[in-house]
Specification:
By secondary structure, the chain is of the alpha/beta class. The protein is about 20% helix and about 30% strand. Strand 3, helix 1 and strand 4 form a beta-alpha-beta unit. Bound molecules: zinc ion (ZN) (3 copies).
Length: about 270
C-alpha cells in the first residue's frame, strides 16, 4: 500500500533570466545576441513560485505580459517586488488583464508586496491607478509594505532577505526550501544565516567580470558556497556572460545557469 505523500510540493518557474536590457539586446550582433539556442533568449528577470495552491510572482518587469501568456497564468496570489528598477516593475500596468478574468463574476484586485521605497515608486509611476478620480480600466492594485521579519500571505510564510544593490537596497525572498535573490551586490552575514538549509538557491550573476551593482559569477559562487544548498541557479545574466553552452562549462557541480521556462521542483 502506498503511504500518503505528506510532503508539500513547491515549484519554481524562471519567467525571465536576463538583465535590464534582456537578451538579445536591441541592435547587438554579438554571438550571444545572434545565437539560435533558445536558452540564449532571456526576458527580463522574474520568477513564479507555486505551492499549496498559491501562486507568487517575483517582479513584474516589461516582459510581464509575455511571461503570463507563455505560462498560461489566469490568476495570482500576489506579486513580490525585489526593488524599484524598471526591469522589475515596468510591467505592472498589465495586471489589468488579471483584474478582469471571469468578469463580471469576479474582479481580482492584485496584491503587491514590497519595501517602502519600492511602494512609493510604484505609486508614483502608476499614479493614475491611485488617484481619487480613476478612469475606467486602470489597474486594480493593493500595495502592502513588507515587514523586516517573516510574514504570511494566505498561509504561506515568506522570509524577506535584505541586501544592497549599489546605493539601493534590494529584497530577496525565501519560501520554504527555495530562496531567490536578484540584483544583489552584497549581503550581510545575518541575512546569509536566513538562507541556511535551503534546497534551491537562486542568485544573480551578471557576467564573469565584476560590476559595481550586481554580483559577478565568482561573487555569486562565493555566496553559494557559504549557503551550501543542494542546487543553485544563476539569473539576471547579461549578453556579456557568453552563450549558455559556453558559460555552463565554467560552473562547478550543482550550480547552473537558469534559462527562461526552466522549472525546478522541491518538496518540503
Ligand atoms: Zn535588474
Ligand atoms: Zn549582444
Ligand atoms: Zn536593479
Amino acid at each position: 500500500m502506498l503511504l500518503p505523500n505528506l510532503n508539500r510540493e513547491i515549484v519554481l518557474t524562471f519567467l525571465g533570466t536576463g538583465t535590464s536590457q534582456g537578451v538579445p539586446v536591441i541592435g547587438c550582433r554579438c554571438p550571444v545576441c545572434t545565437s539560435t539556442d533558445s536558452k540564449d533568449k532571456r526576458l527580463r528577470t522574474s520568477a513564479m513560485i507555486e505551492t499549496s495552491g498559491k501562486r507568487f510572482i517575483i517582479d513584474a518587469g516589461p516582459d510581464f505580459r509575455m511571461q503570463m501568456l507563455r505560462e498560461g497564468v489566469d490568476s495570482i496570489t500576489a506579486i513580490l517586488l525585489t526593488h524599484f528598477h524598471k526591469d522589475h516593475i515596468g510591467g505592472i500596468d498589465d495586471v489589468r488583464a488579471l483584474n478582469y478574468v471571469n468578469y463580471p463574476q469576479r474582479i481580482q484586485n492584485i496584491d503587491i508586496y514590497a519595501k517602502k521605497d519600492t511602494i512609493e515608486c510604484v505609486r508614483k509611476d502608476y499614479d493614475y491607478a491611485f488617484s481619487n478620480v480613476r478612469y475606467r480600466g486602470v489597474p486594480l492594485i493593493s500595495l502592502h509594505e513588507i515587514p523586516s521579519s517573516s510574514f504570511t500571505i494566505e498561509g504561506v510564510e515568506i522570509i524577506p532577505i535584505q541586501g544592497t544593490h549599489s546605493i539601493f537596497s534590494v529584497t530577496g525572498f525565501r519560501i520554504g526550501p527555495i530562496a531567490y535573490l536578484t540584483d544583489f551586490k552584497s549581503i550581510a552575514e545575518t541575512e546569509v544565516e536566513k538562507l541556511k538549509g535551503v534546497s534551491t538557491l537562486v542568485v544573480n550573476a551578471l557576467r564573469f567580470s565584476s560590476h559595481d551593482s550586481h554580483f559577478s559569477v565568482s561573487e555569486a559562487l562565493e555566496l553559494i558556497s557559504r549557503v551550501s544548498p543542494q542546487k543553485a541557479y544563476l539569473t539576471h545574466m547579461s549578453h556579456e556572460i557568453g552563450t549558455h553552452t559556453w558559460a555552463s562549462e565554467r560552473l562547478p557541480e550543482n550550480v547552473y545557469f537558469a534559462y527562461d521556462t526552466l522549472k525546478v521542483f522541491n518538496y518540503f
